[in-house]
């Protein structure tokens, strides 16, 4: 175990390079199991969540080999042994449920340990069951395992019970392998869903409507391995660096940002009086997404006149919503934050009170954030959820003096070399091994 010593109150400057998308990477890694042969993925983020997925795949017989630091070869051509699955890796990542869709044609029946990930209250998997069952996938829940039984896959007309990202991705993975046509209504159109679709299209899948809430999928008999698919940049990590810049009152440029998935966030900041510049528009390495550099300019900001809330794309990203909380602590006035999607995530914002934030919890989903906070240093444990944990770090960076942050594995699940990246921009973060 290790912990962080943060000497806060520093102004950051220069440029920060955004990383590749965690949520895209874990879905596409699991989808690679559908392709018999050697597939290569590049721009894979070096994060703990990816490490757990690789351990999971290796344990069931998938061969992986790092070609270089950010490029991985996945060979899923051999026999898969689900009885050998790495229970520890599976229990540490919710992304293991992607195997339901990925293995829907390949393995007739198996059991998989119940998934872990962030502690955000009940995160129902029933929407997965309702949709996958229409394609021929049946999942039974026991105390410790999910038991999955796959029959002959067939196309279906599916209205998503919940427009979730992982749910939509699971349905897509099963549908591209099913016989006949599948129509998916109320699908998520979020960035990771689009990235997965483009990867599968490169493998030979037939998917129409990418980027919309209605997908039409014609099943194919065989998918082919993919030679070098670059993972797209991460809009949530980009928003994290935007939050760092504003919270610390810094002038900072965040490079390699997927603009389409940050436009509403930037609109909200514009209304608050935050100044920024969008520069160097170009296409992502995989050729599907508009990429820009965003320069954040130190500004006096005011509270939003309306509540702020997340929603499925197109909308303010549900994972970007908590990253507004540190920003709102520096805005003149008071803002209502409505985090409706998760039962407990808003509660974790109370940890920021220990750093001087003026936050009032109204219920398990809503809170008031009052601005112009002068942060105070403190010693804290990370909350057991990724974005609330990084929020604590952001506010510690804004607090003059020495703070200590423990239990940082939860941050390392989603952020690549975060502390070194911030230090290169002028932060003072020390990693202490215990």
Which stretches of 5+ consecutive residues score pLDDT under 50? none
Number of E-state strands: 25
The top-level CATH class of the largest domain is: Alpha Beta
The SS-based structural class is alpha/beta
3D shape:
globular
Named at the architecture level, the CATH assignment of the largest domain is: Alpha-beta prism
Beta-strand proportion: 25-35%
Q: Could you give the order of strands across the largest sheet? A: 23-24-1-25
Main beta sheet: 4 strands, mixed
C-alpha-based Rg, rounded: 21 Å
Q: Return the CATH topology of the largest domain.
A: UDP-n-acetylglucosamine1-carboxyvinyl-transferase, Chain
Give your account of this protein's structure.
The structure is a single chain. With 434 residues, the chain is of the alpha/beta class. It folds into two domains: 2-19 and 233-433, Enolpyruvate transferase domain (UDP-n-acetylglucosamine1-carboxyvinyl-transferase, Chain, Alpha-beta prism); 22-230, Alpha-beta prism (UDP-n-acetylglucosamine1-carboxyvinyl-transferase, Chain). It has 13 helices and 25 strands. The chain has helices at 22-31, 48-59, 87-91, 99-102, 126-135, 165-175, 191-202, 235-247, 263-272, 324-328, 386-397, 409-412, 418-424; strands at residues 2-8, 15-17, 38-42, 63-68, 71-75, 109-113, 137-141, 145-150, 157-159, 181-185, 206-208, 214-218, 229-230, 252-258, 275-283, 290-297, 301-302, 308-309, 331-332, 334-338, 358-361, 366-370, 379-381, 401-406, 429-433. A hairpin with a 4-residue loop joins β21 and β22.
């Amino acid at each position: 175990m290790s912990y962080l010593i943060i000497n806060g109150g520093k102004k950051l400057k220069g440029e920060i390079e955004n990383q590749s998308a965690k949520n895209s990477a874990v879905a596409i890694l699991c989808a690679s199991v559908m392709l018999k042969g050697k597939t290569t993925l590049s721009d894979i983020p070096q994060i703990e969540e990816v490490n757990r997925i690789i351990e999971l795949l290796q344990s069931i017989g998938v061969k992986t080999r790092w070609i270089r630091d950010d490029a991985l070869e996945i060979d899923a051509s051999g026999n898969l042994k689900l009885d050998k699955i790495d229970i520890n890796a599976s229990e540490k990542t919710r992304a293991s449920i992607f195997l339901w869709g990925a293995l829907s044609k390949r393995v007739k029946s198996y059991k998989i340990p119940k998934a872990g990930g962030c502690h955000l209250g009940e995160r129902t998997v029933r929407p997965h069951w309702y949709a996958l069952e229409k394609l021929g996938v049946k999942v039974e829940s026991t105390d410790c395992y999910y038991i999955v039984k796959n029959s002959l896959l067939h196309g279906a007309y599916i209205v998503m019970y919940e427009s979730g990202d992982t749910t939509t991705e699971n349905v897509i993975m099963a549908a591209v392998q099913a016989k006949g046509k599948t129509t998916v209504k109320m699908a998520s159109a979020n960035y990771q869903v689009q990235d997965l679709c483009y990867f599968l299209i490169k493998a030979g899948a037939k998917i129409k409507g990418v980027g919309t809430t209605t997908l039409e999928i014609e099943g194919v008999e065989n998918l082919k391995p993919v030679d070098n698919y670059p993972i797209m940049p991460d809009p949530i990590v980009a928003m994290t660096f935007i939050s760092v810049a504003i919270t610390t009152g810094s002038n900072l440029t965040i490079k390699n940002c997927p603009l389409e998935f940050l436009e509403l966030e930037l609109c909200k900041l514009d209304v608050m009086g935050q100044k920024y510049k969008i520069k160097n528009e170009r296409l992502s390495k995989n050729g599907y997404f508009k990429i820009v550099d965003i320069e954040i300019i130190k500004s006096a900001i005011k509270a939003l006149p309306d509540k702020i809330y997340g929603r499925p794309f197109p909308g303010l990203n549900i994972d970007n919503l908590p990253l507004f909380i540190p920003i709102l602590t520096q805005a003149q006035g008071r803002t209502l934050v409505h985090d409706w999607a998760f039962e407990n995530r808003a509660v974790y914002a109370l940890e920021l009170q220990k750093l001087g934030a003026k936050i009032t919890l109204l219920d398990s989903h809503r809170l008031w954030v009052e601005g112009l906070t002068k942060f105070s240093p403190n010693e804290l444990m990370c909350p057991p959820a990724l974005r609330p944990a990084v929020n604590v770090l952001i506010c510690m960076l804004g607090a003059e003096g020495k703070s200590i942050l423990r239990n940082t594995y939860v941050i390392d699940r989603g952020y690549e070399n975060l502390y070194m990246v911030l230090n290169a921009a002028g932060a003072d973060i020390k990693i202490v091994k215990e």
